[in-house]
User: What shape does this take?
Amino acid sequence: MKRAKNIALPYAETFGAAKAGLPGGGLPWLAALRKNAAGHLTENGLPSRKVEAWKYTNLAPLAESPLCAPDADASVPDLPQIEGTHRLVFVGGQYRADLSDGALSGVSTLGNALDTDDKWLADNLGRIAKPNGHAVVNANTAFMNDGCVLRLAEGAKLDKPLHLVFASAGSDGKVAAHHPRILIVAEKESQAEIIESHVGAGAYWANPVSEVEVGEAATVRHIKVQADSLAATHLAYTRVIVATAGRYDSFVMTTGAALSRSEIDVVLDGEDAKCRLNGVYMLQGSQHSDISTTIDHAKPRCDSDETYKGVLDGNSRGIFQGKIHVAPDAQQTNGNQLSRAILLSDGAEMNAKPELEIYADDVKCSHGATTGELDDDSMFYLRARGIPEDTARHLLIRAFIGEIVDEIETPGTRNYLEKLVENWLEREGDIQ
Amino acid sequence: MLEIKNLHATVAGNDILKGVDLKVNAGEVHAIMGPNGSGKSTLSYVLAGRDGYDVTKGEVIYKGKDLLDLAVEERAGEGIFLAFQYPVEIPGVDNTTFLKTAYNAIQKYRGEPPLDAMQFLKLLRAKRDELGMGEEMMRRPVNVGFSGGEKKRNEILQMAVLDPMLAVLDETDSGLDIDALKIVAEGINALRGPERASIVITHYQRLLDYVQPDFVHVLSDGKIVRSGGKELALELERDGYASISDAA
Assistant: This one.
C-alpha cells in the first residue's frame, strides 16, 4: 500500500547533479542535512491524494512537470513595494542585491550566512522544520538555494517591517523550481514583522519553507502575500514554535497560482502563548487554493484564534483544513476557528474540514465553517438605491474581506493588502 | 407619472396581486391601506423590481416608460425610491460610503457629474441636520445595531439625499414611537412638490395624521377594492377592514 500513497518525483534524482551548485556546498553539516532530505524525497516522492492531509490537493501534475533550475538573473517587472518596509528581493529563489535595500540589523541572506559557516546557523537551520518525511520540507531542504535568516537578540526590535519578495520569471517550456528558506529566531521579548510576497510570470514551482521560533514574550507578525503567476504551483510550509507568553500572528493572502497550498503548523509550547492565524483567498478561473493549518496546544493557558475567508469565482476550488490539538495537560485552552467562504459562481467549490482533537478537560474551543452566496437581501437593497449590480457585488465582497484585512495593525501593510483586494476586484470576472 | 394597469403578480407560485389598477399624478400623495396579506408589500417590491416577484399580467408605465423592463438600479436612476419595511443590515459597509456610492451611481445614470467627498459630505450634513441624525451614525455600518426607529430614520435620510421623483414607503410607520413618526412624516412632507409623488403604504391611519394624503386606496386580496379621499382612512380606523372587504 505504501506505493499508492506516494507519487514519484523524478526531479529528486537531479539532486546529485545540483548539489555542487547550491550554497554552502563545502559545509559537512549542511551536506548531511541536504542528503537526508534528498533521500526522503527520492524514497517517498510527493504525497498522493490517498494521504488524508492531501486528499483535496493533487500533486501528480507537478511531479510530471519538466522541472528545472531557475534563472536568478532574469528581469522581473513590477516588483511589489510596501511603504515603510525594508525590501529584500529574491529572483528564482536567489538574492538580488541590485534590487534590494541592503543591510538591516539582525537580517542576513541565507547565502551570506552559509558563507560564514556559522555555528549558530548549523544548530538552527532545519531544527524547527525538520526533514522528517514532509515532502514540501524535504524538497526545500534538499534544494534550498537562498533565503533569509532573521535573528533577533533578546529585547531587540526590527527597525522596520522586513519585506521579502520572491519573484520568478518562469522558464521556456520547462517549470523552474525555486526553494527559498526563511529562518526566524526571535529571542526573549523581541519583536518583528515580516512580509513575504510571492510574484512571477509563467509556469514555475515556488516551494518556500519558513521555520520560526518565537521566544519568551516575543512577538512575530508574519504576513504572506501569495500573488504568484496564475500558471504557477505554490507549495509552502511554515512551522512555528511559540514559547511562554510569546505571540505569533500570521496572515496569508492568496490571489495567485494555479495550484497552491499554504500549510502552517504552530506549536504553542509555553504557558500563555498565543497565535492568530488569519487569511483571505480570492480565486477565479480554475485556481485551486489549499490552506491547511495545525495548532498544537501543548501547554496550559494558551490562546489560538483563526479566521480564513474566501471568495471563489469561476470554477475555482478552495480548501480549508484546520486541526486543533489540545494536549492532556493543556488546561484552560482557548481555541477559536472560523472558515467562511462566498461562492460567486455555480462552478466554484469549497471544502472546509475542521478537526478538533481535545485531550484536556478544561478547554474552550469553537469552530465554524460556512459557505454561501452573496446575500440576496443586501444585493437588492443596494441596487434599489441605484447601485449597479457589479458595484454592489464589489461593495459586499470588499466588506466581507475587509473585516479581516482591517485587523492588520501596521498601516503600510494594511494599505498594501487593501490595494491588492481592489486590484482583484477590478480583475474579477475577466478570467473564467 | 405612474400608471398601474391590471397588474397580476405571483410569489413562489402563489397569486398575490390579482389585477391592481392605480394612477398617480405628479404632485399627489396616495395612501394604500389594507389588512396583512393583502399584497401591499408585494406591490412595493414589484415596483422596485425585486427578483422572485413575477408579473404575470398587466403593465406599469412610469414617466412614459415600461417600468417592468428596467433593472432594479435603473428604476432608482429614474427616480423611484422604495423605503423598506425591514431595512437590511450590511456589515462592513459604512453609511457614508453606501450613500455616496448610491448618490454618484444615480448621478452617473442621469449623465450628471459625481460629487467629490467634500461636496457629498456637505450635502449629507445638511440632510442629516434636518432629520436630527448624528454624524456618528454615518460612520456605522449600514443599519447594523440600529434600533427600529433609527433604521426607519435612516431610510428617510437616504430618501432625502437621493431626492426621488416617486417615493414608495412600505410601512415606514410600523414600530415607531410618536417622535420618530413625526420625523418620518416631516421627511415625507419635505419631498412634496408639484413634480413629485408618493405612495404611502400603511396598515394604520396614524401616519396619515401627519402626512395628508390626496387619495386613499384599500387593497384587499390583491385588488384595490375601494378608493376615496383622506376621510376613507378615518372610516377604516373606525370600522376596520372587515366592513370594506365585505362591501367588496
